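User: Before I run my own analysis I want an independent prediction to cross-check against. Here's the chain; please return only the structure tokens and, at the end, one sentence I can use as a sanity check.
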Amino acid sequence: MKGARAEVFTALVDLENLLHTEGAIVKTLQRYLDTEEERLMKIRRLREGFRKLHNAVSKDAEDFVTNPVNAFLLVKMLTADWKVASALMSSAAGRQMVENITQAGRFRFPDEEDLTGAAVALLRLQDTYRLDTASLARGQIQGVKPSPELSAGDCFELGRQSYNNEDHYHTVLWMQEALDRVDEEVTKTADRVEILEYLAFSTFQQGNTRHALKLTNDLLAAVPDHPRAPGNKRYYEDAISKTELHKRGDDGDVPMDEAAVGKKHHGPDADSERGIYERLCRGEKFPPLYKDKDLTCQYRTNGSPFLLLQPAKEEVMFPKPRIVIYHDVMSKHEMDVVKLLAQPRLKRATVQNYKSGELEVANYRISKSAWLRNEEHGVIARVTRRIEHITGLSADTAEELQVVNYGIGGHYEPHFDFARREEKNAFQSLGTGNRIATWLNYMSDVPAGGATVFPQLRLTLWPEKGAAAFWYNLHRSGEGDMLTRHAACPVLAGSKWVSNKWFHERGQEFTRPCGTRIND
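Assistant: Structure tokens:
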């Protein structure tokens, strides 16, 4: 170095000065070791989390992933937690190891979109089935095998995902749970200050400004020089001052209970379609809209020689529109073959945009689907023939068999199977008219959730492996039957497999002739 002299060995005083250098080196090395020990401790904690999850999965992989909390934990660990772990492996050897596992193509990693989807699915289940936040965090869901408890970090991630979706209601629920848990943790899995900041802002967005101010004061007590908290505090104080001024100027208003405001949620009205849909999904009972004598069970042959030796077991679930269940219409072997053929082709299910006519993915339909032709396997052709014999309809103009798998929180919100007049290009390319009828095979039992519900009829059909539901979507006049609007409830536990056969108008003229009135 310029100006430096390398002759310290010539005088004792210079050697004594080196002791200061040596002391600085000792401190520097100690700081480095402390930093490395902290880094390694973080890696060890992450490794322990991965190990616990791996051990739980190893006991029964299929059973493990059917629990929605487990599914979220698995996706989070392979996204957010792995991202932290790989960043901590900063040495050349560590970076090479990360590259070996992530770029070799041997292993599949979920991405941020998967993490968001898993979190939103869990929140959807929480709302639809009214799951308590604390119980959910403990891994307790009624009727479902328990999962490992969520850490403060896991709860924080659910809150963060809610915040990113501008869902401040769930942000408050999960950040509060994270705060409660981080205070009890010996080894912290989340930053208390960060939790407080998210919680304060979302509490304010929910209308509880006073509590937001209290949380911000707690944050400032922990970190007085926090970059954003002082500005937030002034903002909340100004908002409270304006509210107080407004109250003094308007004696006619009763002051609003801020604690109640802080818990507000854009939940559906109980008697709205959405509210009824969720109540049906939970299995709530409604006064029947039919007479018991109209619900019958019988063996159905339809005059078909195919059904003489083994008639279809028909159970009427609703008289008008007539919705029926046929029991034991698919064998285990047939269902296994259909699933096996469909699995390699499963893709995110789409819906048709009624304005543009284009197919697109939508948050109100979360599932994966594939289409199977009769020519692909004898089982597909056999199942189609059986459906023809039972319904009396021709499958010549029917759509291919659609196979659907609903995963974590998988659902399909209320919809019609038929195309309405305002829909653009609906089924025009097929040239076979509208969807006259729906046949729905249930190919798995679902431990919890996953019902098919008809909100206007107050009707719930629970999945029964091997059974099938059938109904006409159109009146005999060709007009759509608005009462057939239905939905697939979110899957709370397990995996739901179904397959649909949609029949079209063309080819059914003699089987189901037109009526003379609109609602025939």
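Sanity check: DSSP finds 15 helices and 18 strands in the chain.
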